[in-house]
Amino acid sequence: MTELGRIEKPTVESFRTKRKLYCVSSVYPVHDAPADYTALINKYWDEVTEQTGKLEAAGKIKKIFCESIYVQGEDALNALAKINEKALHIIKKKIEEGAVLLPIETKNIFSPFVDWVNCLKVVRTPEVFTKVFEFFIEISDKRLQHIMNMIEGNLAEGEAGMLIMKNEDRAKLQFPSDIEVFLVTPPSYDDILRWFREKARDFNDQE
C-alpha cells in the first residue's frame, strides 16, 4: 500500500493507467460530544478533503464506496446525513465533481451484521459470547466478501475510487494486485485515537 506524501511526479504518472483506491478511515461525529472531540472530528475531515485532493493527481475520484450504505441516490445521501454528516460533505463535493456514490452494502447482510454487533455488546457469559461471536464472524465474512465484490466489479481500469470504511474492517479486505491502494492518514487521526485512549484510561481510573 502507498502512503500519502511519498508520491513523486514520475510515480504519479505510472499510476494513471491502474485502478486506484483512496482509503479513508470512517470517523463518526458523536451527538453532544465534548467540544475537544468535535474540534478533532472537524479537523480530521478537513484534512481528509485536503489529502484526497492531493491524491487525485494520480486520478480523479469517479466511484465512491462508503460503509453502512445499501441504498442509492438521494436515499443514500439522506442516510449519510443521519450517521455521518462530515463524510457526507466530502462525498457531495466529489459527486458535484462527477463521482458516483455506489451502495457497498446489501441490506440482507448488513442488517444481521449490525444485530450481531449489538448482541456482542450486551453478552455477559463466556459461553454465550462464544456462540454469538461465531455467528458474528460468519456474517462479517459474508459482508467483507460482498464489499470486495462491489469494489472489484465497479472500479474500471484506470479509474480511481474512494473507500470510506473503518480501518479495522478495511484491513481485512484482500484487494487484487491490479488495484493500487492509497491510505489517507491525516495527523488528526492519531489525535482522535489518543483522545479515546485517554477517556478510557480516565474511566478505568474512576472505577
Walk me through the structure.
Helix content is 58%, strand content 15%. The chain is an alpha/beta fold. It has one domain (2-105, 159-206). A 6-stranded parallel beta sheet has the order 1-6-2-5-3-4, with helices on both faces. The termini are far apart. Residues 5-10 have low confidence and may be disordered.
Number of helices: 8
Coarse shape = globular
CA gyration radius, whole angstroms: 18 Å
Oligomeric grouping of the chains: single chain
Distance between the termini: 41 Å
Please give the share of residues in helix.
55-70%
| Structural class category | alpha/beta
Report the uncertain regions. Answer: 5-10
Largest sheet: 6 strands, parallel
Annotation, overall tally of beta strands:
6
Q: Overall pLDDT, averaged?
A: 91
Tell me the count of domains: 1
Strand order of the largest sheet: 1-6-2-5-3-4
Beta-strand percentage?
A: 5-15%
Order of helices and strands: EHEHEHHEHHEHEH
Keywords:
207 residues; alpha/beta; six-stranded parallel sheet; 8 helices; 6 strands; globular
Q: Which helices and strands occur, and which strands form pairs?
A:
Layout: E1 2-3, H1 9-15, E2 19-25, H2 35-55, E3 61-66, H3 73-83, H4 85-96, E4 100-103, H5 107-122, H6 126-154, E5 160-165, H7 167-170, E6 179-184, H8 187-206
Helix pairs in contact: 2-8, 3-4, 5-6
